[in-house]
Every structure is written in structure tokens, then in C-alpha cells.
């Protein structure tokens, strides 16, 4: 038996999480929104450490969507600063724990110093193998697909051969997640039951798990429940169980 009381062969390899409920957590606990976001950022480390312990090698978290720019300027500024502080603070821990950090999403709207910091931490942690931790920042599934299509069109107009890009495998190579396996399990916290423009291509055959728990309160025990629910499911990928009638 391994982590979460689930045998190794039934553990998901890649878990994606929509980190929802930071603001509600703050309101329920009489705190500022910023304190809710800080508590949520701290919890990423807790869940990441648990996944290392259990031997689950990929974690992707939805940190800031393309739609989150609609929030107040004060909140957006705080979130951008929080991301910067998080990356600076956790760089040494990532190297010590064996965590490779990546960022997916359109970086062009991020500040130059944040872009530079992201590039630096990606380079410095590139050899780490215990956990692949990916942050979706200024990320939207539709935006990702559109950016991929635009790049293919650009290459075609330049005279390059793009026939391979018109296959599923070829197209996936143009996505931000081209170095990652598709998620096996997608978790969303805080009782919301939608994917909110997250990994639209990659979640095609993922198992979904929704919980009432607000993200800052989402504990290793809650993660265990999600992993156990995943392990009980039959994944068919559009097919049928062996011996089952069509």
C-alpha cells in the first residue's frame, strides 16, 4: 500500500487543482482577502509535500486565470506580488525537496521582473524530479488553444510543413503543457462544479472530483479522499470494460 491508502498502481500520476475559496475562507474567518490568498498559497506547499510523500509526480494548480484581471486593481496587484514572493521564498525549498517548477499561460501581460523570475526558477529547477509543480498564471484554456492555432498558422505562412500539427499528438505539442502528461484527476474546491476554462484540451478524459472544502482548509486528509475516490473509478477513455457487451 502507498499514499492515501491506495496501491501504487492505482494512484493518479498527475493531479490538477482549481484553487477555489480563498476569499470565502477569509470572509468566514474574519480576515482580509489578501490573508485568504496568502493562506491558499501556503497550502500549495502542504499539498505538494504530501504528493511527494505519496509518490505522485505531477501537480498543476490554477493560480490566476485570464479572467482574474477583472478583479479590483488592488487585489490583482496583491496577487501578482504574492506570486513573486512565493517563487522567491520557495526556490531553495524546491531545490532541496526535488521540485521542478514550471509556469503555463500567456506571460506577455506579466511584469518584466515576474517574467524574469519565472524564467530563472524554471531554469534552476529543471533537473528536479520528485515533483513537477506547474502554476497556471494568466492562463485560460481557450486562450491556450488560440495561441497554439496562431503559431501553427504563422509557421504555415512561413512555408513550414504543419501537417503533423493537424493530428491530436501534433497539436498537443503546441500547447503550454507539451512537456506534461494529461491530468488523471482534476480537483476543484469550495463546492463549485465547473472547470472555468482550465485545461480544456487536457481534461478530455480526466476524472473530476468536487469538494465543499475551501482551498486554504483543503488538507492531506481531503486529498486522500479525492485519491481514494479516483482509485475506485473505472477509466475507459471512451471504450468499454473487457468482457462488457457493447
Distinctive features:
six-stranded parallel β-sheet, 15% strand, single chain, 7 helices, alpha/beta, 246 residues
How does this model look, in words?
- With 246 residues, the chain is of the alpha/beta class.
- It has helices at 22-28, 33-54, 73-97, 112-124, 141-157, 168-172, 220-231; strands spanning 14-18, 58-65, 99-104, 131-139, 185-188, 207-210.
- The radius of gyration is 19 Å and the shape is globular.
- The model has no long low-confidence stretch (mean pLDDT 94).
Overall geometry: globular
pLDDT < 50 runs, ≥5 residues: none
Overall mean pLDDT: 94
| Number of continuous helical runs | 7
Q: Give helix % range.
A: 40-55%
Mind telling me the C-alpha Rg? 19 Å
Helix-strand makeup class: alpha/beta
Biggest sheet architecture: 6 strands, parallel
Number of strands: 6
Q: Strands across the major sheet, in which order?
A: 3-4-2-1-5-6
Can you write the helix and strand succession as a string? EHHEHEHEHHEEH
Beta-strand residue fraction: 5-15%
Our measurement of the CA-to-CA distance between the termini, rounded to an integer number of angstroms, reads 34 Å
